[in-house]
Amino acid sequence: xxxxxxxxxxxxxxxxxxxxxxxxxxxxxxxxxxxxxxxxxxxxxxxxxxxxxxxxxxxxxxxxxxxxxxxxxxxxxxxxxxxxxxxxxxxxxxxxxxxxxxxxxxxxxxxxxxxxxxxxxxxxxxxxxxxxxxxxxxxxxxxxxxxxxxxxxxxxxxxxxxxxxxxxxxxxxxxxxxxxxxxxxxxxxxxxxxxxxxxxx
Length: 201
Known about the structure:
The chain contains seven helices and five strands. It is of the alpha/beta class. The protein has one domain: 2-Layer Sandwich (Nucleotidyltransferase, domain 5), CATH 3.30.420. It is globular, with a radius of gyration of 16 Å.
């Protein structure tokens, strides 16, 4: 028996032992808005979030986040992650957040789960029709186009996660709502896996 490593951890998060599986032949697409403090996770019909304690920092926080986030992603056929926001130059924790992104991507790669990276501006253009949409504008778009309402302290994070999942479903030709063509054109800004890899799962 080998000793588990950070990237081999399969222990589910408390209360998250069962994640929704794909319905019938419908692929399960999960969006992830990665954050050091409040990560949004969601799919077509559910959203949730992962919060860290204020005192958590460094390696313990990263290990906790990879384990908790992974408990949501392990059944996915496609994961869509939000890319880095390079325009936010004064944001603290850039290096650690970049590390979290790479660690989650590596976690997915090790399990052969296809993933995509959607730049923030492309995601906002796809979902809200405006590449610089604010959190309230994203939530308004969710209600207007998808009939989804997000509330609570993690509303913006969960809305972004839902938007990422919606982008993945649209890319697969299974849009969750009818949206203008220029919204769909924004999907070209993402970095997507081979479609065959998703279909083979």
